[in-house]
Amino acid sequence: MSTFLTFTLLLLLFLAPRAHANCECGYTVNATLYTDLLETDFLHLPNITLDTDWELQNYTVSAADARGPYGKNATLGNVVANPLKDNTSWTGHGILGGDPGLQLWVRGGIPSDGLIPMAELASTREDMLYGSFRASLKLTG
Questions:
Q1: Whether the predicted pLDDT of 101 surpasses 50
Q2: Which residue pairs from 58-62 have beta carbons closer than 8 angstroms and sit at least 24 positions apart in sequence?
Q3: 69: nearest Cα among 107, 106, 111
Q4: Is the pLDDT of residue 6 over 60?
Q5: With 31 labelled, which of 69, 97, 99, 122 sits at a CA distance of 20 to 30 A?
């Protein structure tokens, strides 16, 4: 490697920005350091109700309140845990078959009661007001 190239690489390394955090997983906003996270391994969770960070939602919204032709009906039965068959693995089929993970169902067809059957879960955490959300989703048709 030439002396010039070595010097350039060392200079770039020296000038590169450094992390200024007490915890490398944290981030700052207006000088406030945030280091909390909410992470759930839905691939290995056999029963979502055992996870204290999440609460399944059960409610209805009329078509008028939903401002459309249909309302919605969030039911507990539309939230389905499908963990991996092998609890020590990170790949494979779920215990119910198909792709593993948490399934949030929205049932198709025209509902006879005017309410679209759907699933919803909400965080039980009240100490987190802002956040960055990352999820791996697979939509089926």
A1: yes
A2: 60/115, 61/115, 62/114
A3: 111
A4: yes
A5: 122
